[in-house]
Write a structure and sequence with these properties.
The protein has 8 helices and no strands. By secondary structure, it is mostly helical. It folds into 2 domains: 91 residues, RNA polymerase sigma factor, region 2, helix turn helix motif (Rna Polymerase Sigma Factor, Chain: A, Orthogonal Bundle), CATH 1.10.1740.10; 89 residues, Winged helix-like DNA-binding domain superfamily/Winged helix DNA-binding domain (Arc Repressor Mutant, subunit A, Orthogonal Bundle). It is globular.
């Protein structure tokens, strides 16, 4: 079923269509949320909140061509709001960080899978070291593949600003990776 038909069926209350939509986009929404918060549980909670908002506001997105940017914009908003709440009310005690990220294996070779997972953990740890704006640019542009024009529109900044921030973000990420000990061996 194509996206326009799927969205229309969701708007009419078709539960099977809604389940199909959720399954199609849950990985992407979780990935964006994880890029913002860096913990599995928070990312899952935020993804669930995003789908609740999408369900409630689906009638406002009439153009199927704009659905993906609209969905990413909602996801970003939920994540940014969450981070603001956490910053306003930090936890009373330190919460241990879950370093064990469960990622699906890409191939049958366990050694290659282990190396890939180690690289991903390193990148996510390095992302935690970036400034908020640079982390956001990396998540949106490099990890989610959003066009710079969409990012500029979403962040309400000029395209040139996004381009320069993207360059600085990549440099800051590279420095963070090196600081964490992921120099040349990270590259193949």
């Amino acid at each position: 079923m194509d996206l326009p038909e799927l969205l229309q069926r969701c708007r009419t209350g078709d539960e099977l269509a809604w389940e199909t939509l959720v399954r199609a986009y849950q990985g992407r929404i979780y990935g964006i949320a994880y890029g913002y918060v860096g913990t599995t549980e928070e990312a899952r909670d935020l993804a669930q909140e995003v789908f609740v908002r999408i369900y409630r506001k689906l009638h406002t997105c009439r153009d199927p061509e704009r659905f993906l940017p609209w969905m990413v914009r909602i996801t970003r908003g939920v994540c940014v709001d969450h981070l603001r709440r956490v910053k306003a009310r930090p936890p009373a005690h330190d919460v241990p960080v879950d370093e064990d990220i469960h990622l699906a294996a890409d191939g049958p070779d366990p050694e290659q899978s282990a190396m890939l997972n180690a690289r991903k953990r390193l990148i996510y740890r390095a992302l935690r070291m970036l400034s908020a704006i640079n982390r956001e640019i990396i998540v949106l542009k490099e990890m989610q593949g959003m066009p710079q024009e969409e990012i500029a529109s979403m962040l309400r900044v000029p395209l040139g600003t996004v381009k320069s921030r993207a360059n600085r973000a990549r440099i800051e990420l590279a420095k963070a990776v090196v600081t964490l000990g992921g120099g040349p061996e990270l590259q193949e």
